[in-house]
Amino acid sequence: MDRGFLTESLRSAIESIKTNKLRSLLTTLGIIIGVTTVIAVVSAISGLKQQVAESFSSLGANVLYVQKFPWVVGGKNIEWWNIKKRRDIGLKEVQALKEFGSSFEYVAPQISRAFDVEMGEKKARNVTIQGTSEDFPVIMNQGVNLGRFLNHDDIKYRRDHCVLGKDVANTLFPDENPIGKTVRIKGRLFTVVGLLEEKGDIMGQSLDNVAVIPYTTIMSKFTGRKESITITLLAEDEEEARQEIRWILRRVRGVKPEEEDDFSINSSGALAKEFNQLTRTMFIIMVGIAAISLVVGGIGIMNIMLVSVTERTREIGIRKAIGAKSKEILIQFLLESIMICFLGGFIGIFLGFSLTKLLSIVGNIPFAMPFWSILLGFGFSVAVGIFFGFYPARKASSLNPVEALRYE
Amino acid sequence: MSSLIQMIGVKKVYQLGETEVHALRGVDLELKKGKFACILGPSGSGKSTLMHIIGCLDVPSSGTYYLEDKSVGEMNDDELADIRKDLVGFVFQDFYLLPDVPAWYNVSLPMIYNRVSPKERKKRAIELLGRVGLGDRIYHYSNQLSGGERQRIAIARALANKPEILLADEPTGNLDSKRGEEIMEIFQQLHEEGKTVIVVSHEHYVAEYGEIRIHIEDGLIGCEG
Predict the structure, then answer these.
(1) Same domain, residue pair A111 and A181
(2) Residue B57 and residue A326: Cβ atoms within 8 Å?
(3) Interface test with A, best of B75, B113, B117 (most A CBs within 10 A)
(4) CATH code for B35-59+71-224?
(5) Range of the domain at A384
(6) Which of A57, A85, A56 is nearest to A71 (CA)?
(7) Is the separation of the CB atoms in B13 and B23 below 8 Å?
(8) pLDDT per residue rounded down to tens, chain A (408 residues)
(9) Residue B12 near residue B53 (C-beta atoms within 8 A)
(10) Do both A183 and A289 map to the same domain?
(11) Where are the domains of chain B?
């Protein structure tokens, strides 16, 4: 097949689609829906993955979070009604982990509140007041810009010292050095001893709107002791650390051998696994929906192409009478069904793109339409065009010329 | 010089539901290059079938047919298509033009299959339309044209790939006698230019034009003269 003939067949296919605009559009609806689904879901998953990856990095690698509840409820027989009566996690557990643990060096309790932080007339609103210990910077990979972090004595003596995040510092001390100054949290005065390094933001939320104070202070002054806390640990080998933590906590909490753990050890790695499971499920569902609509769309294409072949029986006869080979008729009709599907793919990609864009704006999800999803969309539609267009095209090409000419 | 067309005992049998239709019952025919032949006969005599077989649009059920000394019976579909493309030009009673394209495109259609470049196609189509007296109808669609004009487009189309043989199946059947004669004049002229022309008809004035008249009845050649 040379290019001249293909161009001519393509031209004729486009001409035929143009004459039957509405019919072609309706025919290709299945393809449009299929491709739109593929593009939208692939983009949504990619966007979500990107976002989640950012969140994961803020959780820290190799950081274990010992908490009362798991991050994801529902999987692996962990049902809400089984775990809601769990006992709180408190300082007793922190003490035990520090004392007996050998697979992790750093342990920091975390307990937080959201309060306004004031300095004279200025006010930083809704600041995350993070109560923790001196191990926090190592575990959370948090650097200090200016001054120092909380030290052992700050924790021990429940000092009213704080380390400010960039946002808070900028609001309260726009053009002066905040170290040594005093800020007010819930009417209590705190001395600023340091500034945290900038962390940026995820999902449009700043990680720098924070003030860190000793956990001993937050517990004695703001939260009391009757609240379950989070214990963060930096583990070298996550699996080993998990085993050891379970062993220590089961003992210190008096969990009987036949009973399940009454605490959860969360980590970004485990969450990533859960998340990948979720996206895999989404992906399978998407492939299912796409496959169904593409097959339905393909059958629609086949149907309309059969109609087209019947309608144009005489044209086929004429073309054969003036010297067209069967192969050439086949290519003409195959190109037409491919073009219809291609059109559907094009519209589908456009709609999928718009939908994703809309979702990213409304849902505040990062916009991520991978290039391969476009290729996938076009590839799918062209494949459907070839697969479902072949039978009608074959039928057209095998018509007997004399009978085709006589067809009324 | 050997014959352009040579048929020996050509039969054609159609299966029409349960019944077998014997369209041709053993036709012997010989025609030399450059002749103008009229195949005459009433409707149902098998003359259209004969013409289809001559033009390789159809193949015989039995018997042998040599076209330019090549046995048509041994050809495959592609080779038959090549003959229709290069050697033969058809003109039909019902014109068989594509309705949604301008006149010049209809004329250029056979050249697509001969891989003529688009520019050359259009140029040659316009030239051919001029030759059949439709130089001012190049961009008209067939529903804007009269029967005589449509048939002339069909003739121009038949000439597109410079065929050796022109085959016309009742070319005047849908025209009044004046337009019919105009069409036959074109065939006469083409014959004079050296083309082999075969016209199938049941109309007597058509027979006036042929050098050779072949009568066919009930699938058999009657008398030649």
Answers:
(1) yes
(2) no
(3) B113
(4) 3.40.50.300
(5) 3-55+273-406
(6) A56
(7) yes
(8) 577 788 888 888 888 888 889 999 999 998 999 899 888 888 888 888 877 777 777 777 788 999 998 887 765 556 777 777 888 999 999 999 999 988 998 999 999 999 999 998 899 999 999 999 999 999 988 899 899 999 999 999 999 999 999 999 999 999 889 999 999 999 999 999 999 998 887 766 788 999 999 999 999 999 888 889 999 999 888 889 999 999 999 999 999 988 888 899 988 877 788 788 888 888 888 888 888 888 989 999 999 999 999 999 999 999 999 999 999 999 999 999 999 999 999 999 999 999 888 888 887 777 778 888 889 889 989 999 999 999 999 999 999 999 999 887
(9) yes
(10) no
(11) 35-59+71-224
Any A CB within 8 A of B82 CB: yes
Task: Give the Cα separation of B136 and A196 in Å (integer).
Answer: 86
Distance CA B187, CA B211 (A): 12
Angle at which helices A268-311 and A313-321 cross, to 10°: 70
Q: Which two tokens stand for residue A100?
A: 């007996």
Contact A323 B82 (CB under 8 A): yes
And the tokens for B136? 């001012």
Asked if residue A121 is part of any domain, the answer here is: yes
Domain closes at, from A262, A295, A317: A262
Exposure letters A160-199 (e unless 16+ CB within 10 A, then b): bbbbbbbbbbbbbbeeeebbebebbbeeeebebbbbbeeb
Q: How many CA atoms lie within 13 A of A4 on its CB side?
A: 11
Chain B residue at shortest CA distance from A18: B100
Query: Looking at CA atoms only, how far is residue B78 from chain A in angstroms?
Result: 6
Cα separation, B1 vs B21, whole angstroms? 36
Measure CA B21 to chain center: 23
Say yes or no: A186 and A305 in one domain: no
Please tell me whether residues A344 and A296 are part of one structural domain.
Answer: yes
Q: Are residues A288 and A202 in the same domain?
A: no
Q: Which residues of A116-128 are buried (b: 16+ CB within 10 A; e: fewer)?
A: ebbbeeeebeebb
Contact B65, B10 (CB under 8 A): yes
Within 8 A of B85 by CB-CB distance, chain A residues are 322-324
pTM of the model: 0.75
Residues A114 and A257 in one domain: yes
Domain stop point among A233, A262, A291: A262
Residue A321 contacts B where some CB pair is shorter than 8 Å: yes
